[in-house]
Structure formats: C-alpha cells, structure tokens
C-alpha cells in the first residue's frame, strides 16, 4: 500500500474516492447479474439447438444408407452465406443468428431420386442448426469473457479498493486526531510557560 499523506486535503480526497466506489459498485453488480442471466439464456438456447440437431438426425435415419451412396448431395447443402445481426447485451456487441443461405445448383429431376427434395431439406436443416450453434457459442464466449472481467472489477471494489480506502481514512483520522491533541498539549505548555514568565516578571 502506497504511503498516504496524513492531511485534511488527503482525507477529503479519500472520502470522495470512497463515495465514488460506493456509487459505482451497484452498477457493476447489476451488470454482473445481467451478464449471468444472459449467459444462462444463451446456454439454454445452445442446449435447445443441440436437442434439435438430435431430432434432425433421427429424421435422417431413413436415408442414411442412401445418402452414403449419393455424393452429389454435398452440392445442395453448401452454405453460401450466414446471415447474422449484431445486438448489444450489457454493453457487449454479440452476433445473433438469423439464417444460413445455401447454394442452389440446378436439379436434374430425371437422374435424382424421388426422395431427393425431402432429403436435401433435412440435410439443410441439420447444417443450419450446426451453423446456429457456432454463432451461439461465439455469443456465449463474448458474454462469458465480459462476465469474467466484470466479476473481477466487482471483487476489486469489494475486496481491495473500498477496504483500502476505508483503512486510509481511519489512519488519516487517527493521525490528524493525534496531531490535534499534540497541538492542544503544546498550546497548554506554552500558555503555562508564558504564565510563569509573566508571574516571574511581576514577582
């Protein structure tokens, strides 16, 4: 802890700093709570997306063996673009998944099987769900990092800055009190000596 000046000016500065910390801490705590809530919501959305992926896999089971022998399906599930928005959550800019856009190669209905269109739709949904998970994971990472930083700041204020400032105020108050007591004692001694000198001069 840096050496503090034991002056009235420093006491005023420390009290002002303590007031600032007490004003700012509730804002930080509120942000921490909001971030914790948002992280939980994103994690819930990620779990829901993973559940949907499991359901899509179940829908794909009838075609699994057929798809193994149909390499041309990859052309129909190739992602052309991922559409996202950006939103601000507790001061953090995060991506929000909207949709996955796919390449649209021409379909030769004479050579493709009758179930081609339905299989492509399910494969595209699987790809879209996985793409959504990537965006949700990025969102969770950004919010979790901001939560970590905010939690550190809350701890810094609660466990370091406020106790340290309170201790500095106490030390300065004691020093100023001691100085005032010493000044009063010196004044009494000086007054006593002055009285003695006056009495001696008139005696």
Give a structural overview.
The chain has 203 residues and is mostly helical. The chain has a single domain (8-196), classed as Orthogonal Bundle (Helix Hairpins), CATH 1.10.287.3240. The chain has helices spanning 8-60, 64-68, 116-202, and strands spanning 79-89, 92-102. Strands 1-2 form a two-stranded antiparallel sheet.
Quick rundown:
This protein has 3 helices and 2 strands. By secondary structure, it is mainly α.
SSE pattern, N- to C-terminal: HHEEH
What low-confidence regions span 5 or more consecutive residues with pLDDT below 50? Answer: none
Task: Give the strand order of the largest sheet, numbering strands 1, 2, ... along the chain.
Answer: 1-2
Our estimate of the beta-strand percent is: 5-15%
SSE class: mainly alpha
What proportion of the residues is helical, as a percent range? over 70%
Mean pLDDT: 86
End-to-end Cα distance, whole Å, is 57 Å
CATH class (first level) name: Mainly Alpha
Assembly type: single chain
- The name of the CATH architecture is Orthogonal Bundle
Using the coordinates shown, work out and report the CATH topology. Answer: Helix Hairpins
The structural domain count equals 1
Taking the sheet with the most strands, its summary is: 2 strands, antiparallel
Number of strands: 2
């Amino acid at each position: 802890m840096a050496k503090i000046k034991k002056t009235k000016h420093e006491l005023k500065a420390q009290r002002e700093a303590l007031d600032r910390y007490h004003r700012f801490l509730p804002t930080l705590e509120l942000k921490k709570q909001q971030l914790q809530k948002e992280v939980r919501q994103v994690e819930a959305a990620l779990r829901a997306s993973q559940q949907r992926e499991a359901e899509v896999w179940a829908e794909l089971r009838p075609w699994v063996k057929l798809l193994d022998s149909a390499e041309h399906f990859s052309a129909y599930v190739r992602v052309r673009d991922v559409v996202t928005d950006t939103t601000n959550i507790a001061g953090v800019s995060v991506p929000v998944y909207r949709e996955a856009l796919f390449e649209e190669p021409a379909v030769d209905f004479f050579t493709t099987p009758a179930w081609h269109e339905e299989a492509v739709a399910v494969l595209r949904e699987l790809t879209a769900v996985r793409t959504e998970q990537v965006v949700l994971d990025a969102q969770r990472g950004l919010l979790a990092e901001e939560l970590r930083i905010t939690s550190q700041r809350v701890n810094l204020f609660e466990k370091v800055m406020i106790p340290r400032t309170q201790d500095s105020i106490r030390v300065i108050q004691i020093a100023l009190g001691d100085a005032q007591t010493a000044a009063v004692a010196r004044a009494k001694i000086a007054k006593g000596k002055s009285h003695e000198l006056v009495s001696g001069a008139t005696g």
